[in-house]
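Continuing the series of single-chain predictions for the mutant panel. This is the parent chain; the variants come on the following pages.
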Amino acid sequence: MTIENYALLILLMTLVTYVSRFVPIFLLSKSNMPAWLIKWLKYIPVGVLSALLAPSIFMTDTHLNLSVNNPFLLASIPCFIVAIVRKNILLTILVGIVAYMIFA
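Parent structure:
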């Protein structure tokens, strides 16, 4: 691919990203959403984060690994405890790094 093709590709990806984010905001800003929809939308960040983290914690290569030899699973336990008790993201990250270094 030439540099012009790369530039065109980046421009088109920028346009698609902008339009896909702007249109829902533009359309929903003029109407009131029902309470059930607002309540349902609050679960999306938790669901997305769970979908991102679960394979990293529970999968080794292509296999489910729930053994005590899984350092990701072992390191996630103190992370979850610190996250629930302290509600401090920086502390949770630091505990996760240290725990992984210990268990790996």
